[in-house]
User: Which sequence fits this backbone?
């Protein structure tokens, strides 16, 4: 292909051809370092028109992408493209890009891997500025797939075409109500200032659909990053006025220099960067390679790299989301000091939290003499006066508790206030009202003191109770942190009894990737069925902690691939398409039933993870009802 012929068209796209050698991340030199991504991503993320190539009214990604645009309220022009149809979901349908009444700004390509590069070429020739490619089957599969991906890389860098993917679920721009996204969006997003970039599409779904008071600006699935990479998306979020916190799920950092530069720019603009980088174990590195073709590096080197780049590294998806929510809520406040005051209504939990805070380097300044005198006037004589403070007293949450919080927050050496209050999911109405008083007190103290107030709940979420949630949201300024602990011990005990776990979920397989008939492994072809209810990771955490392999038989469960940094989980629809006997044995078994499995030749799970062709004492688990409390 003669790329030089594109020089006139590319002036409106991402990278000018005449500067391709200088701008291409693979060709950077020490003499001409690139401090900022050369790609301009606005045409990709805020298009005025979108063509959906492979649109369909019959389910799968071709339907979901269109439904998502309607659900999010996209006001631009939508062009479904499929020669089989005249209309889809109320949109006029066209046979090809050449038949559109006007050039589309962006295109979603929902075809198979071998069709992707020809469609990129056709899209660029038609004046399309940005493309998202859904298909898998590239660098993550080895030689031929890697070569196809390299050709896509070369084409995009020469032509300037903005390309997201391949092997990803696309993006959702919540702020501007724009999306090219292949998984069903929730009925309502809470717009906010957290921008997420994930190299695993299903992890992105887990974060975006978590039942937390998290507000998102952008959800970006980067996939194999054939053209645009992690640093390019980061630079876009750094410059995005709607994004103030950046959360990352990383399997590999393909361009460390550009990534470090993007992190430096984020720090200069006061935007925290929080990262969950998987690949601590050798096995996790192998799993990452089979997922997105990623190459992971030394974990100790990465830790040092993150510290130098001002990146906060976390180890679990819970922590990634909670830390992002925390910094989102603290935006604009002085939260850099480790000096905290903490109030609880439980002496036992106060000790537990004190240990956690001490491990995190937080400091509890002693209460001043004046502060002690004021506290003695509102708490019973037997109440200990200290920081952390047991503010339960005689149980007066209407008067004594708010007064105690106010006194503690007024302490000169206290710069952040932590309020600990459990909000379990099965409270009686009287208890809900009682704990609503705690929420009101926290909101009042935040307003009166101007200091950051962080609420912590062990094993529950304010979102479970609309009264408490409304108090916190309407009052403003109080950030809540939820620590999930329910059921872990039971899950861990059960996981220790088995040699492996097989997990399934009924979900539609894209016919463009697997032929006209959906996978013989899957009995359900319902596009509305979803596996994104990831509020409880206890089973997965326990499996990782106990080094118990998990086999997932379902496309779309990449969120389980390397969850919590353990990397002991594998998503194998490609390898197990022919292993219907394994699926049937598992699917017909009740939850947590024990059985033996033998995987037919060609399964990389047994060969690479287990080291054989069979495994005994394997437990069945059906993910659509994942709940560790049902174990046993």
Assistant:
């Amino acid at each position: 292909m003669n790329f030089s012929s594109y020089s006139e068209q590319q002036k409106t796209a991402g990278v000018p051809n005449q500067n391709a050698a200088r701008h291409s991340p693979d060709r950077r030199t020490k003499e001409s370092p690139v401090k900022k991504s050369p790609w301009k991503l606005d045409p990709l993320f805020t298009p005025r028109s979108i063509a959906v190539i492979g649109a369909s009214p019959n389910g799968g990604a071709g339907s979901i992408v269109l439904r998502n645009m309607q659900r999010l309220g996209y006001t631009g022009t939508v062009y479904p493209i499929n020669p089989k149809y005249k209309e889809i979901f109320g949109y006029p349908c066209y046979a090809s890009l050449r038949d559109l009444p006007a050039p589309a700004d962006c295109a979603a390509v929902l075809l198979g891997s071998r069709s992707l590069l020809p469609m990129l070429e056709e899209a660029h020739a038609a004046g399309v500025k940005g493309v998202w490619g859904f298909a898998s089957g590239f660098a993550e599969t080895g030689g031929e797939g890697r070569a196809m991906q390299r050709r896509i890389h070369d084409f995009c860098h020469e032509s300037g075409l903005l390309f997201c993917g391949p092997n990803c679920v696309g993006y959702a721009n919540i702020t501007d109500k724009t999306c090219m996204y292949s998984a069903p969006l929730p009925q309502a997003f809470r717009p906010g200032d957290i921008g997420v970039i994930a190299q695993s599409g299903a992890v992105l779904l887990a974060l975006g659909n978590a039942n937390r008071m998290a507000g998102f600006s952008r959800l970006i699935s980067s996939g194999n990053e054939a053209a645009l990479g992690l640093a390019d998306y980061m630079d876009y979020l750094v410059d995005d006025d709607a994004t103030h916190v950046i959360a990352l799920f990383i399997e590999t950092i393909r361009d460390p220099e550009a990534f470090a530069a993007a992190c430096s720019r984020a720090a200069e603009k006061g935007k925290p960067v929080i990262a969950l980088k998987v690949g601590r174990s050798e096995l996790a590195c192998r799993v990452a390679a089979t997922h997105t073709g990623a190459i992971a590096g030394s974990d100790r080197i990465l830790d040092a790299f993150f510290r130098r780049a001002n990146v906060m590294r976390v180890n679990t998806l819970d922590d990634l989301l909670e830390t992002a929510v925390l910094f989102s809520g603290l935006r604009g406040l002085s939260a850099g000091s480790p000096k905290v005051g903490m109030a609880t209504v439980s002496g036992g939990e106060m000790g537990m939290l004190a240990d956690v805070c001490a491990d995190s380097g937080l400091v509890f300044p002693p209460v001043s003499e004046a502060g002690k005198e004021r506290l003695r006037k509102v708490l019973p004589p037997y109440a200990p006066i200290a920081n952390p403070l047991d503010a339960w007293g005689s149980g007066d949450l209407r008067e004594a508790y708010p007064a105690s919080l106010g006194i503690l927050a007024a302490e000169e050496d206290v710069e952040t206030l932590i309020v600990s209050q459990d909000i379990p999911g099965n409270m009686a109405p009287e208890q809900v009202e009682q704990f609503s008083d705690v929420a009101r007190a926290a909101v009042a103290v935040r307003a009166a003191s101007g200091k950051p107030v962080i609420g912590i709940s062990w094993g529950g979420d304010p979102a479970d109770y609309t009264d408490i949630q409304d108090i916190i949201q309407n009052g403003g300024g109080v950030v809540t942190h939820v620590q999930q602990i329910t059921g872990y011990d039971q899950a861990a005990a059960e996981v220790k009894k088995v040699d492996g776990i097989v997990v399934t979920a009924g979900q539609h397989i894209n016919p463009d990737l697997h032929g006209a008939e959906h996978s013989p492994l899957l009995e359900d072809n319902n596009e509305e069925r979803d596996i994104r209810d990831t509020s409880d990771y206890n089973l997965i955490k326990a499996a990782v902690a106990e080094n118990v392999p998990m086999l997932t038989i379902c496309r779309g469960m990449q969120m389980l691939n390397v969850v919590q940094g353990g990397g002991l989980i594998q998503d194998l629809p490609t390898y197990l398409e022919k292993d219907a006997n394994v699926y049937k044995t598992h699917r017909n078994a009740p939850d947590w039933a024990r059985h033996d499995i033998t995987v037919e030749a060609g399964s990389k799970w047994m060969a690479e993870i287990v080291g054989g062709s069979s495994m005994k004492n394997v437990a069945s688990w059906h993910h659509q009802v994942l709940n560790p409390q049902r174990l046993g």
User: Anything to note?
Assistant: The mean pLDDT is 75. DSSP finds 21 helices and 24 strands in the chain.
